[in-house]
Write a structure and sequence with these properties.
Layout lengths: L3 E7 L5 H13 L3 E7 L8 H9 L25 E4 L17 E4 L12 H23 L8 H11 L13
Protein name: Arsenate reductase ArsC
EC number: 1.20.4.4
Keywords: Arsenical resistance, Oxidoreductase
Length: about 170
């Protein structure tokens, strides 16, 4: 399983899944190939997401909002892991994707839904990216190449409980 192919899925594919894709591709250094998609893509990447990534020194070239339809059917690229990042706590519907890969859920409030001043919106994107980065770092520490699918699912589910402050969402 090298590189490990990971698809991040949300509804709009404009913020959380884009932040996740770019962060894993940057920090994964070829050990992982990250992709992202949405069930109802907005068609454009949120400019605050691009600003957050660029400010963190991560490449933003080639990022785009696209449909998950590209990842189903016989012509779809093979995947090892699919991670939904929608926020069930906000009653946001999470897409369901079928295939022979490990699935997990890393719920996260949508920073694109943040309101207020540009500074407040930037703060929401910064916080979301901090959580995503913490989770990505935990993923990078997993021996994904040697874990069984059941072990990998369990480890990924545990990562989904991590927040940016060192705690878990259940405790937050």
């Amino acid at each position: 399983m090298h590189p490990c192919r990971v698809l991040f899925i949300c509804t709009g594919n404009s913020a959380r899944s884009i932040l996740s894709e770019a962060t894993l591709n940057h920090l994964g250094k070829g050990r992982f190939v990250a992709l992202s998609a949405g069930s109802k893509p907005t068609g454009q990447v949120n400019p605050y997401a691009l600003e957050q990534l660029a400010g963190a020194g991560m490449p933003i070239d080639g990022l785009s909002s696209k449909s998950w339809d590209e990842f189903v059917g016989e012509q779809a690229p093979p995947l090892d892991i699919a991670i939904t990042v929608c926020d069930a706590a906000a009653s946001e519907p999470c897409p369901v994707l079928f295939g022979d890969f490990v699935r997990t859920h890393w719920g996260l409030p949508d920073p694109a839904a943040a309101e207020g001043s540009p500074a407040a919106i930037r703060a929401a994107f910064h916080q979301a990216h901090a959580v995503i980065t913490r989770r990505i770092m935990a993923l990078l520490n997993l021996p994904v190449e040697t874990l069984s699918p059941k072990e990998l699912k369990s480890a990924l589910d545990g990562i989904g409980a991590l927040t940016g402050d060192g705690g878990s969402e259940a405790a937050a």
